[in-house]
Amino acid sequence: MQVEEKILFCLIVFLGIASLASMTMGQTNVASGPINASISQPISITASGNLTTGIFFTNGSTIGVQYPITDVTIKNNATANYWGSGYGTEYWVQSGSSNKINITIYFTACDDLKNSTLNAYINLTWNAGEGAFFGNGTTATTPSLNVTQDYAFKKVPNWALVGSKVDAGNYIYLRFWLDPWPNNAPSAIYNTTYKILAVEYGTYPGSASC
Amino acid sequence: MKKLAIFVVFSLFLFFLPFPSFAQVGVGITSYSIPLRGNVGDVYNVNFGVMNPSIYTIKVKVYPQCDNCINEVKLFGFKLFDDEEVLDEYFKLDKEIVDVPPGTTQQNAVPITIKFAPKLVIKKNLVFYTPEWLNFFIRYANKGYAGSFKIPYFTLLIGTRDFKGRIVAEILSYDGMKPGVIPSVASTLEVHVRGMPFESFVFLVLMIILIIVVILRRIGFHRVSSSISKLVKRKKS
């Protein structure tokens, strides 16, 4: 028998003993009974009907009806910004009443507003005070226009933070405005898809994708 | 009088019609955190449910997202390619798209099963990014080219893997209609997998080398080399 064969033989014997020991050791006859618990810690949200339908930007401050935007140098309202009772907003997101955790709510746009036929865009993101903006608040009348980058729309892969540490059953009310850029965009209908994401408060939302 | 009654009944009928444009739509997951921990060879299932607090049937897409599954491979500071983990090699969801009836709560949530079964031999992808000057020519032939391509390869799962991400439940439609704004919720996902220890890998390699040496000793190095040279000669002729 060569030296290598001897080493191999020893290793095989060692492995055999080790596997036998692992199979037999620790096997004792003990009566066992089940112990069981079911835990449910849900996370859920509900979006208002008007938000689910979509964000329709209208001309100036028209309420409830969408008209083509004629003034591209002002902040044009979304149709349901002041459509609720007492001129409150009809856009809201509610944290599920059965949630046992606080949630954080993020928004993102899949793209800029686009007309596929013309291959033309209206940009949503921030450009020196232009773009689309959101306002948020805990009552229907509080969301107000803030022309800052924090309140400008974001698109994938970035998320815009619209509601932090929202408790179970609580609402985040929203309003939206659009100051289109570039100002020489051709007359047409432009659209995109918008997403809402709710995650546990304090956790990372990841990169947005569509 | 009859006409007025018909008008009133018709008005009431219209009033009570469920206008989908004003439907509140929501979605939920029965667990806000899903940890998956285990070793190579372990097989177990984890269940969670998809909830629907709205009054319409919703179609929901459920998918995992990973934050740290792509690692950059660099040489002298220059990025060569990305090394991408494939989550399917560790766990799989039994359904991707589910229909959730209205008013589904935690108690009657539509179940989704995660089958956690990490393998010893796993598939990974090398993601190469082509430069823009080359993309021009590729897009001439393939308009949809995204500027990168993947080469799959297999490797042993050595050491431990920790993935952080989330399981996302995203509404595709409610009562067959696509929502204008898409609501989604995410449950935090943490995956910890223990593969083959590095020492075991070294041991395995040594064993293989030892077995090869023993076989070569038994047969004889000269016979192996002569059979190889014969093979080469045959191919040449």
Model description:
- The complex is a heterodimer of chains A (210) and B (237).
- The radius of gyration of chain A is 29 Å and the shape is elongated.
- The relative contact order of chain A is 0.20.
- In chain A, strands 1, 2, 3, 7 and 9 form a 5-stranded antiparallel beta sheet that branches.
- Chain A has helices spanning 3-24, 49-53; strands spanning 43-47, 76-77, 91-95, 103-109, 113-115, 120-122, 131-137, 160-166, 171-179, 194-200.
- With 210 residues, chain A is of the alpha+beta class.
- Helix content of chain B is 27%, strand content 44%.
- Chain B is built from 4 helices and 13 strands.
- The longest helix of chain B has 22 residues, at 198-219.
- By secondary structure, chain B is an alpha+beta fold.
- In chain B, strands 2-13-12-4-8 form a 5-stranded mixed beta sheet, with no helix packed on it.
- Chain B folds into 2 domains: 21-196, Immunoglobulins (Immunoglobulin-like), CATH 2.60.40; 198-237.
- The chains are: A alpha+beta (210), B alpha+beta (237).
- Chain A binds chain B through residues 2, 4-5, 7-8, 11, 39-55, 93-94, 96, 98-101, 193-200, 203-207, and chain B through 19, 21-33, 51, 53-54, 65, 67, 105-106, 164-166, 168, 170, 174, 179-188, 207, 210-211, 213-214, 217.
- Strand 1 of chain A pairs antiparallel with strand 1 of chain B.
